[in-house]
Amino acid sequence: MTDVTSPCPPEVSPAVLSDSAAVLFGLEDQFSVLDVERVDSTIVKVVVEVTAREGPCPGCGVLTSAVKERPAARLKDLPALGQRVELWWRKRRLLCREKLCPRRSFTQACEAVRPRGRITERLRDGLATAIAGSNRAVSDVAAEYGVSWPTAHRALIGSAARWLPEPTPTTVLGIDETRFRTVRWILDGITWKRSDPWLTSFVDCSADGPGSLLGLAPGRTGGCVKEWLAAQTPQFRDAIATVVIDPSAPYASGIRAALPDAVIAVDKWHLVALAHTMVTEVRQRVTRAQLGRRGTTADPVWVNRRMLLTGAEHLSAKQWQRLWAGFDEHNDPTQEIQAAWAVKERLRMLLRQTEPSKIRWALADFYETVIDAHLPEATRLAGTIERWWPAVLVALTTGITNARTEGFNRIIKQTKRVGCGFRNMINYQRRILAHIAVTRPRWSAA
Ligand SMILES: [Zn+2]
Fold this sequence. Notes:
Nucleotidyltransferase, domain 5; alpha+beta; five-stranded mixed sheet; single chain; disordered N terminus; 16 strands; disordered C terminus; binds zinc ion
């Protein structure tokens, strides 16, 4: 029986112990551990060498095992068992014995570390996954793994290039905008230039597709849509039958120029949002005219402002009573708020229709309500519907919406918050796409 106090059981040879140490550090595929030493309470020094004693000469390809030198290189690696690992790799500088080979000597290479690399490939992957996977700040991850910010960032860039696949073709392309930061004026030589703080996102909005974020482009002009589409493959452009957007004229002109055969649909939720803005504008104008100030908790119209924007079918009997009480001669003396509310409800009814004959009736009904309302705000809304009618009709008959794009806008804004704002647009786009690629494997598999 083995003496329990002996430092090493006699039947275990040093070679076997070395192998188990390699397993402990997860290095056994290519390395053997020569020595493990404690540096301080949180850092261990591990000396390793490549298990294979010979290597092919890069000049002639002939295998050699003649060692010229054993230089040691210090590498950063993943932490092991909660301890930071300082990896010392005793390299082999091998001699080529082929007489005709111009190469005299070379350093043995291995897959775990790139030539002249200072960190292991698995640490590089770990850094990139930590940053992109949970949407953490680069500085935070760099501090945890004991590397510099540029090292962690370079790891992310390298992995992002591998993770981000070419956009897969879709029949329905959704285009939407998010604000990337507040407007700034930048001094460019002697003139001031306005920075464009918008980001356009391109999303697969088809009913059967994976529903992924396909790409991002800085700006929100027709030009940025055109440029992004021009950078895609002809197959990608040809597959697009419908493009769904908010009622934005620059986007529409960009799409018409880049995809002359595609049909434009306008997102109906954006139209409902426009109707809500219209009701709010009327309410605020009436309150100002009546009271000479903005609404407060003392004004029933202001208290019920959210109810005005709730769909009529979602109101309870009690809420209906309160809503109608708000339309009396005291709160709404000119009946303009009620008229605006009726226009909004007619628009919602119109946007619920899917059959062409019913759509025609609902549209006539909507226009009639607008004419009866005599409100400049409602007339402006009707003008928007009229201008965008072909695109609205496409949305109603096909049921296509931009809801998926809105979902990605949330992730985009979250990424902005983590980075406390990004100065570099390319980094910002990469972070968003990498985060989505890592957290949505369905997409990276596509
Ligand atoms: Zn050689």
